[in-house]
Amino acid sequence: MTAVIVVWWLVLLVALLLTLLAVVQILRIVQEARDIRRLARETVPAAQAIAANTACIGALAGLLPPAGRLVVASQAINRVAASIEGHVAGVVRALGALAAPSAPKGI
Fold this sequence. Notes:
The protein is an all-alpha fold. Helices cover 82% and strands 0% of the residues. It is rod-shaped.
């Protein structure tokens, strides 16, 4: 009978130790859950601001056609400006040729 009581107490001690380990783990889990809830509360305003700032990204697709037209128009302006620059250079050369003194003849 004494052996049964010793085994019974050993089993009770092991069960107590396992229960204490389980309680420690549960306390850690509860603490981590509280930390997660606190951090989630802190990040909600930032997440809302990010959502508000990125809400208009979908509208950017509508800017592609006007941007394409602007590129085409700016290329046309560049071509016209290059043509004007060429004409101005020709006028400058022509005026320079008229204003250049001619060398005296017969010397």
